Amino acid sequence: IADVMIADKLLDRSLKLLKKAAGEKKCLFRGVGEVTKALRKGNSGIVFIAADVYPVDIIAHLPVLCEQKNVVYAFIPSRKMLGGAARSKRPASVLFVKTPATESPYESLYTKALGGLKEAN
């Protein structure tokens, strides 16, 4: 299922983006339920999914939903890495970063990560 696994420089950029977005209010959604709800409401952004989620059925619907809503998604190697990037002590299965408003602190990181992920897809 891990189709778009990111690594190296793109992974570092994405984790940096998640750390910046975690500092802002209402910019980062954590967990399968919250992310699914945000996607169904039509929010745009980037979805980061942990590749080591077991059982896979928990996150299996997310890539399909992202493609239906034209939202970019990528797989991060581990849940622990994803949770740490979101400034949480707990591992996270899925994180969703909303498209930043103008003059947002993470706007430049978002555009760089989005460009890299679109190339990877």
Description:
- 44% of the residues lie in helices and 16% in strands.
- The chain contains five helices and four strands; from the N terminus they run H-E-H-E-H-E-H-E-H.
- Strands 1-4-2-3 form a four-stranded mixed beta sheet, with helices on both faces.
- The relative contact order is 0.27.
- The mean pLDDT is 89.
Q: Outline of this structure?
A:
The protein has helices spanning 8-22, 32-40, 61-68, 79-85, 107-120, and strands at 28-30, 45-50, 72-76, 94-98. With 121 residues, the protein is α+β, with helices and mostly antiparallel strands.
Class by helix and strand content?
A: alpha+beta
Taking Cα atoms only, what radius of gyration do you get, to the nearest Å?
Answer: 13 Å
Helix count equals: 5
The averaged pLDDT comes out at 89
Largest sheet report: 4 strands, mixed
Spatial strand sequence of the major β-sheet? 1-4-2-3
Low-pLDDT residue intervals, each spanning 5 or more residues: none
Span of the ends, CA to CA:
14 Å
Total beta-strand segments: 4
Helix content: 40-55%
Strand content: 15-25%
Approximate shape: globular
Order of SSEs, N→C? HEHEHEHEH
Descriptive terms for the model:
121 residues, alpha+beta, four-stranded mixed β-sheet, globular
Furnish the topology, listing elements before pairings.
Blueprint lengths: L7 H15 L5 E3 L1 H9 L4 E6 L10 H8 L3 E5 L2 H7 L8 E5 L8 H14 L1
Parallel strand pairs: 2-3
Antiparallel strand pairs: 1-4, 2-4
Helix pairs in contact: 1-4, 1-5
